[in-house]
């Protein structure tokens, strides 16, 4: 089901009226009235730059100069081995408050390097790209009385299926994609007619890349603020989806990642601020389709890899620690000698959250939500308290 403008305005009006009521009137009705939001970062986020493994002896050789380059914000040390990128300040605060759980060396069961096939796998919940329905939709169908919401102009594969799902896309101004800009720079750098034009607007793009001005940082925070507005309503959808693009950083990645991490951090804060009434009953899962190569390539970026990082955030999360098995990034420890080896199937993370947070039974997870996953056990210990299935 698509949420048309009239229904959205009516719902927005209802939310505005509800915001005038005492906060308890908006709060989730019980500890079983939980919320789950999936945030998919399309393009393959560089997990080794988001969560930097300083304690690994291989990191300094592969990434040391890159991580300490001029203009890079100081990383937020989490423990003796890992640090969050300096732009992830709010996420570091959540970690300190034990409401953020990074999961290292994680990937969907698809282990090749196609964006489209890997994203399909993350969304359809199978081990391949052939599924035409999404596991989030199957979750909506499996939770009695629940509704689904996708903050997207087009219904994403993760939410396609028989269950009722509304879509909504906030009106946001278009802005120049910094990755497209990088590609155009390379294409026209030697063109005598166009090189000067591109050079003239370079400073504006630099500001965008650094997250210092312009329209930078608006898209994902707006989308997540919208998700919070809908999902925190007493009768709001319990299962939501938000997506973001622009994470495919093959060239000149430092500036782009500074901006993208800033957007991600602001987006998570916008969701928390907008969903305070339900935050303690909420899990936000932030995932991407694969990691990237461990070494920096010749153009200041990275190429498609395997193992990445996922984050769980929310008041229901048992955070303040690092989850997953770290395989190391010495040459002999890398997958194909080039990228982080995945040690956790992403479906294990999802199954653990769905069972213990939404109360979906193990049998339903295997038979309906994640077919082909009988040998993939749910991760345990992800939440402060489990909801009975």
Question: How would you describe what is shown here?
Answer:
It is a single chain. With 389 residues, the protein is α/β, with parallel strands linked by helices. The protein folds into two domains: 32-170 and 220-368, Alkaline Phosphatase, subunit A (3-Layer(aba) Sandwich), CATH 3.40.720; 174-216, no CATH class. Helices cover 35% and strands 13% of the residues. It has an eight-stranded mixed sheet, sandwiched between helices. Strands 2-4-3 form a three-stranded antiparallel sheet. Strand 3 (76-77) and strand 4 (83-84) form a beta hairpin. Helix 9 packs across helix 11. It is globular, with a radius of gyration of 21 Å. The two termini are 28 Å apart. Residues 1-29 and 202-218 have low confidence and may be disordered. Keywords: Signal.
Label the structural class.
Answer: alpha/beta
N to C succession of SSEs: HEHEHEEHEHHEEHHHHEHEEEHH
* Low-pLDDT sequence parts: 1-29, 202-218
CATH class of the largest domain: Alpha Beta
**Biggest sheet overview:** 8 strands, mixed
Using the alpha-carbon principal axes, give the shape: globular
CATH topology of the largest domain: Alkaline Phosphatase, subunit A
Distance between the termini: 28 Å
**Which second-level CATH architecture of the largest domain applies?**
3-Layer(aba) Sandwich
Can you tell me the number of structural domains?
2
Strand order of the largest sheet: 7-6-8-1-9-10-5-11
Number of helices: 13
Please compute the radius of gyration using only Cα atoms.
21 Å
Give the strand tally.
11
Mean pLDDT: 85
Keywords: Signal
Protein name: DUF1501 domain-containing protein
InterPro entries: DUF1501 (IPR010869), TAT_signal (IPR006311)
Organism: Thermomonas carbonis
